[in-house]
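Mods, move this if it's the wrong board.
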Amino acid sequence: MKRTAITCLVALGAMTILPGNASAADKPKVVVDDDRAQCADADYTSISEAVHEAPPGAVVQVCPGRYREWVVVDKPLTIRGQLDEVEAVDCFDPTPGQLDDLDATRWAIVEPPDSSWRSLFSLSADNVELAGFVLQGLDRPTPTLVDGYTMYIPAVAASSDYSGYQIHHNLVRKNTLGIELGSNGATQSRAHHNCLRENKYGLANQRQLLKSARVDHNQTFRSESLAYEIGWGYAGTERVTLDHNASRGDSYSYRVENTTATRIDQNTVEAGGRGIYVRGGNVGLELTTNVMTGGSLGEIFFDTPTLAVPEPTTAAVITGNTITGNRGVGIVIVAQAKVTGMEISGNVITDNGASGIVVLDGNNGNVIRANISDRNGLYGIRTGPNTTGNIIESNQMLGNGQLDAWEQSFTTVDGVIDLANDWTGNQCATDKPAGAICGAAS
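Not the wrong board. C-alpha cells:
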C-alpha cells in the first residue's frame, strides 16, 4: 500500500553507503515497512509495490519486518535491507538455523508467500543492487528439466540478459538454491560478503550464461551438495573469478565445468568434502593460493567430462595452494580426464591420508614442478599406467607412507628402465622402479 507522507528516516543505520556507492546518497529514495512499526511514515508496506512504483535509479530502503512475497526487479534499483545485521552474522555458528529464529524487528526477512515455483527476487535489469536481506525457506527440491539438464528454483535469480549486478551482505539460508548468478558481461557483476548457509546449493549459474563476474568474500556453511557451481552444461561461462571466499563443512566447495578463464584464488576450504571438483571443457583455468584443510575427499579433483561431446580441460594452472590434513588425495587427475598442458607447481601438499599428487591414465603432456609433497599416507607423487610425456621435476617428496615416488608407465629392456614420463631433479627417498626416480639428476 502506497503512503504519500514524507519518507521515514527511522532505522537509517541500515543505510550505510558502501564503497563504490557514494552517489546513492543523491538518489531518490522510497521506504518500505511491512507493519510501519519501525518506519511509521514508510511509503509502502510491500517491497514489490515499492519496486514497481520507484523510478529507475532509486533506492528502495526496506525496514525490518517479515516480507512474504515474490519480487520482480525490472529496472536499475538499489534495494537495501539491514546491512549491519547481516554484517554481524556468525555464518559458521554450529547451531542449526531455524526459519523463525530471527527477530523481525531487526531483520528484513523475505520468504515465500506460498508454494509457487518462483524466486524471492527475480533480477531482470542492468545495475541492480540487492543487499541486507535474509532470504530463506525457498525449498523446492524437485528439479525441472531444461534442455535435458536438471535445474532448481533459486532464492535470487539474476538473468544473464543483463549485467552489473551487486548482490552483497545477504544471509541466504535454507533454500534449495541460494543465488543463480547470470550476466551478459557488458559490465562486471559481483556477489560478495554474503553468508550462504545450510542451502542445498549456495551459488550457481545453472541455466544462465555468466560472463565477467566476481564472487568474493562470501562464506558458505554446510551446503548439502555444492557451495559454488560454475559453468556446467551451457557454453558461455567466461572471465569468472572466485576469490577470498571461506567454505566450511560443505559437501563440495567448488565445481567447475565448461568455462573459459575461470580463476579460483585465495579461498579457504575447511572440514568439508571435496574442495575443488573439475569436470571437462575448461580452458585457462587457474587454481591459485587456496588453502584446503581437514576435508574427507581429494581436495583438487579432475574428473571425466560429462558433456554430450566431452572436451578435456586444457592449459590449467594449479599453483601456490596449500593442501594439508585431508583424508583423501591432495591433487588427483583421474583416468580419462585427458588433461593436457597443465602446470602443477609450487604447491604444498602434506599430511593427507592418501597421496599427494596422482596423475592417472591418459593425462599426458603436463608439468609437475617444485611442489612439496611430504608425509602423505600413500604416495608423494604417482603417475599411472598409460601416462606419457609429463615433466616431473624439482619436487620434494619425503616421508610418505608407502612410496615417495611411483611411476607405473615404464619398460625394461636388457635391464635398462625407460620411464614414459620425465622425472628429473626430485628430492625423495623411496621410489618405484627403485633407483629410477630419486636418483635421476636434473
